[in-house]
C-alpha cells in the first residue's frame, strides 16, 4: 500500500540562545491514505513541530518528508505552495480572521490564490453547509461559540480541496460535548470526502474516539505506533502504558486534572489472578471497553506453594456507574474482585 505521508529519519534542531535543541530525533512514520492517524504525546514532546514538517512550515534539519509521492525537499517554491494547498490545517485557537465574516474567512484561501470571488463564494457556501453553518455566513467570529469557530476553520481548511487535514489540538479548547460533535464531523469528512486526517492530541480519549492508527511521541522520539486497538490492548512502551493506564498526572490538561480529582477520593478494589492469567491485557481491554480510567495503586506477584499468585489494587473513578461496570467486567473475566478499605501503602 502506498503511504500518503511518509517520514523517514526526520530530525529537527532549533538553534536557541542557550544552544542547540533537538526537537525531533529521527522519526520514522507512515500515514496511509484514508487513515485517521493520531499523534499523541505530552506537551513539549514535539508533535506540532512534527506536523509542521509535513508541509514544510518547518524545514527539517535532516531526513525526508514524502507527501503524495513527492519529496518536499525537491520541490520548487511554486510546487511547494501547490502541495501545501493539498494539506489543510486546523488549530486549537482556530486562527480565524476576526475582522472578516464567516463567508469571507472561508473564501480567503481561495481568493488569495486567484479564484474568482463568485466562484469562491459558491464553494464556501457548500462547505458551510457541510459543517452545518449555512445560516452563519454573515456572522463574525466573535459572535460564534468555540465549536462553531472550529467548524468555520474546518470549512476554510477544506476550501482548497485538500487530500490531507492536519488537526493540531483542534478540540483541546472545547468542552467534552462540543469535542464529540467536532470529532463526529471529522469522521464524516474522512469517510465521505476520503480525506486523510492526522490528529495531534494529548488526550487518549480523542484517539480512542476517532483514530484507526496512533503514534506516541516522547521527547522528540516515536516510541510506539500501530493500530489503536493493538496499542490499547498490548501497549509495549512505558509511555503508552502511562497514557492508557492511569498515568494521567503526567499530562497537563484540564481533562487530566479532572481525572486526578476523580481519583482522589477513590474507591479501591483488589483483584487476584493466578499462575497463567496475566492481568495487563484484561485491564487495558477493560479500559478500552468501558472508557474510564483506573489508577493502579499496587501490583505484585508472590510465589505461593511454587505457583505465581498476583494481586493488584486499583483505584476506581468516582462514578458509581463506572465502578459497577468495571467490577462486572473484571468478574466476567474470571478475576477475583474484593473491595479494599483504608489506605494502601
Ligand atoms: N521555534 C522554536 N525554537 C526553539 N524551540 C522550539 C521552537 N519550536 C518548538 N520548540 C521546542 O521544541 C519542543 C517541541 O515543541 P512542540 O513541537 O511545540 O511540542 P508539542 O506540540 O508536542 O507540545 C519544545 O521543547 C519547544 O519548546
Ligand atoms: Mg503542540
Give a structural overview.
A hairpin with a 2-residue loop joins strand 12 and strand 13 (307-316). The protein is α/β, with parallel strands linked by helices and 345 residues long. It contains twelve helices and 14 strands. The strands form three sheets. It has a six-stranded mixed β-sheet, with helices on both faces. The chain has a four-stranded antiparallel β-sheet with strand order 2-1-4-5, with helices on one face. Helix 3 crosses helix 4, helix 4 packs across helix 5 and helix 11 (279-290) crosses helix 12 (320-332). It binds adenosine-5'-diphosphate and magnesium ion. Residues 47-48, 168-169 line the site of magnesium ion. Residues 14, 16, 21, 23, 41, 43-49 line the site of adenosine-5'-diphosphate (ADP).
Amino acid at each position: 500500500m502506498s503511504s500518503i505521508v511518509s517520514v523517514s529519519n526526520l530530525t529537527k534542531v532549533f538553534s536557541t540562545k542557550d544552544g542547540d535543541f533537538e526537537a525531533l530525533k529521527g522519526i520514522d512514520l507512515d500515514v496511509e491514505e484514508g487513515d485517521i492517524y493520531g499523534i499523541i504525546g505530552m506537551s513539549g514532546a514535539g508533535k506540532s513541530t512534527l506536523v509542521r514538517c509535513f508541509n514544510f512550515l518547518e524545514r527539517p534539519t535532516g531526513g525526508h518528508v514524502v507527501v503524495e509521492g513527492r519529496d518536499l525537499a525537491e520541490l520548487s517554491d511554486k510546487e511547494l505552495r501547490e502541495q501545501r494547498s493539498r494539506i489543510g490545517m486546523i488549530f486549537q485557537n482556530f486562527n480565524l480572521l476576526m475582522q472578516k465574516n464567516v463567508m469571507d474567512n472561508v473564501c480567503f484561501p481561495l481568493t488569495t490564490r486567484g479564484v474568482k470571488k463568485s466562484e469562491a463564494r459558491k464553494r464556501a457556501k457548500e462547505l458551510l453547509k457541510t459543517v452545518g453553518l449555512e445560516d452563519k455566513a454573515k456572522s463574525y467570529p466573535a459572535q460564534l461559540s468555540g465549536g462553531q469557530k472550529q467548524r468555520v476553520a474546518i470549512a476554510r481548511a477544506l476550501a482548497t480541496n485538500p487530500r490531507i487535514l492536519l488537526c493540531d489540538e483542534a478540540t483541546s479548547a472545547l468542552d467534552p460535548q462540543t469535542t464529540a460533535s467536532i470529532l463526529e464531523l471529522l469522521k464524516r469528512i474522512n469517510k465521505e470526502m476520503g480525506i486523510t486526517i492526522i490528529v495531534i492530541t494529548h488526550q487518549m480519549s480523542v484517539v480512542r474516539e476517532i483514530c484507526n492508527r496512533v503514534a506516541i511521541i516522547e521527547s522528540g522520539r516515536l516510541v510506539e505506533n500501530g493500530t489503536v486497538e493493538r496499542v490499547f490492548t498490548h501497549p509495549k512502551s512505558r509511555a503508552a502504558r502511562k497514557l492508557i493506564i492511569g498515568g494521567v498526572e503526567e499530562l497537563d490538561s484540564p481533562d487530566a486534572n479532572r481525572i486526578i480529582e476523580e481519583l482522589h477520593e477513590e474507591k479501591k478494589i483488589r483483584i487476584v489472578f493466578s499462575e497463567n492469567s496475566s492481568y495487563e491485557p484484561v485491564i487495558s481491554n477493560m479500559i478500552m471497553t468501558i472508557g474510564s480510567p483506573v489508577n493502579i495503586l499496587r501490583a505484585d506477584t508472590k510465589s505461593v506453594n511454587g505457583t505465581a499468585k498476583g494481586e493488584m489494587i486499583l483505584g476506581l473513578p468516582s462514578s458509581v456507574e463506572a465502578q459497577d461496570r468495571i467490577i462486572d467486567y473484571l468478574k466476567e473475566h474470571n478475576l477475583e474482585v474484593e473491595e479494599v478499605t483504608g489506605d494502601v501503602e
